[in-house]
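Changelog entry: the BHLH domain-containing protein record was regenerated in this release. Current contents:
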Amino acid sequence: MALSPFTIGLALEENSINHNHMMMINEGNESAESFLHCLSPHQQVDQFEFTPSSPMSSGGDLTVVKKLNHNASVRDRRKKINTLYSTLRSLLPASDQMKKLSNPAAISRAVKCIPELQQQVKGLIQKKEELLSRLRRLQRQGDPMYNEKKSRSTALSSLSASAIAVSWLNDREVVLQISSYVVQKSPLSQIVVDLEDDGLLLLNASSFESFEGRLFYSLHLQVQELTNIIFP
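Regenerated structure tokens:
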């Protein structure tokens, strides 16, 4: 079948277009390869890793990240709230702590405890003021019992000042060491009675006599109540 000049021209033009298209594709690939070659390996990896494969996959990853962050935030908030409720329950009376109170019940009980504690504090303050007032009144009036107690306390100070050594272990315990001649000795039982009357509890006691006729007492005492004794 013979080809017309028009058909031959069309074929030649089509071949020319296909050839030009292939050259453009090759040139584009060469340009891309040249650009990537100019980049550092780190930049090439970053470009590969952070270039999304498709808009849909990127949106899906972002949704997952947001959901995980939200769940973590919710867990942290619940943990803090549970810690606060646990601290609140520890402040309740022991009888209430034994009960398995719900969170609203624990709050209600704590609110009721506040005025009760306030009344207890007021009562203790009033009791303290009454005791101090009574003590000052007894001192002013020279109460016989107070004077007798004070005179017994001065039984220790009748010894020479150099014969007594006081060592405080803390604000509640004291070690009292007494040294006297045997002819001047006071009975240990009487000393202990006098100290206990002054609000001191005997924890331990020891004594020994030296060759020079001196007697040594070592008393470990604990302060039980307000005392007016002053060690020399």
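The domain at 144-223 is CATH 3.10.28 (Endonuclease I-creI).
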